[in-house]
């Protein structure tokens, strides 16, 4: 397999860490951004202990200027970015009639506007080199909606609109753009849902359990491989059968 440079935004999180591990395991140079230096250093050491050296650059994906600087720093350290995984994401769950403007904008900025901020400085290089793989990590809740997540569901549905437009614009440049929509995976984000609510959600999953981060990473690796060149504009739902759209 050709060794490439991959950027996974929010790589220090639950699903992000699994994607970093998986792509590194395939022999790619993997980079991620971070905001909190102390948390990042602890994470970097844990990855290094497993033999995974990650190129880490500080940068807030909500800020377009900081994102561009972050991309240039990664390119300087690790080479041109051929694989981009827009994974950084947060929740601010509450019913819409109680939602503040801040809860709305924080979620839209981190989950959706970040796709612009990070992809924009990367896309021209991919087009010039005539090769690229872009994957958005969306969510089951962008497909089916979720009580308490008007902000998150709007952002996650928007990510797929972004995918299918970019897929059309960049197909002839050897760039594929796809979405992975995880269901409820056993990460800190899902474990923050109150236990009694979470138990009711798990009861709705035909496979009968939460997903594992590596089960999401596996799909990202599938989309980013050379052999996936004819798959673009797709949305792969990985949710234990919780939502079966088509
Ligand atoms: N459908 C219908 N009614 C519901 C409901 C649902 N899914 N969930 C809650 N309600 C009802 C409750 O039964 C309750 O009704 P009564 O007042 O008649 O008793 C009412 O709504 C208020 O519910 P809560 O007391 O729970 O309200 P709250 O304000 O304390 O909390 C909430 C609301 C924040 C939405 C909370 O229910 C919650 O956290 N829900 C889970 C949201 C969720 O799934 N988040 C996913 C996070 S993980 C993630 O996002 C990753 C991913 O991509 C999958």
UniProtKB/TrEMBL annotation:
Gene3D superfamilies named in the record: NAD(P)-binding Rossmann-like Domain
Residue ranges constituting the Ketoreductase domain according to the UniProt record: 4-183
GO molecular function, one term: acetoacetyl-CoA reductase activity
SUPFAM superfamilies, per the entry: NAD(P)-binding Rossmann-fold domains
Alphabetical list of PROSITE patterns matching this protein: ADH_SHORT
Protein keywords: Oxidoreductase
Annotated protein name in UniProt: Acetoacetyl-CoA reductase
Principal EC category: oxidoreductase
UniProt key word Oxidoreductase: yes
Biological-process GO terms, alphabetical: monocarboxylic acid metabolic process; poly-hydroxybutyrate biosynthetic process
UniProt organism field: Rhodanobacter glycinis
Similarity field: Belongs to the short-chain dehydrogenases/reductases (SDR) family.
Any Gene Ontology CC annotation: cytoplasm
EC number(s) on file: 1.1.1.36
Signal peptide range: none
Alphabetical list of Pfam families matching this protein: adh_short (PF00106)
Keyword Oxidoreductase belongs to the record: yes
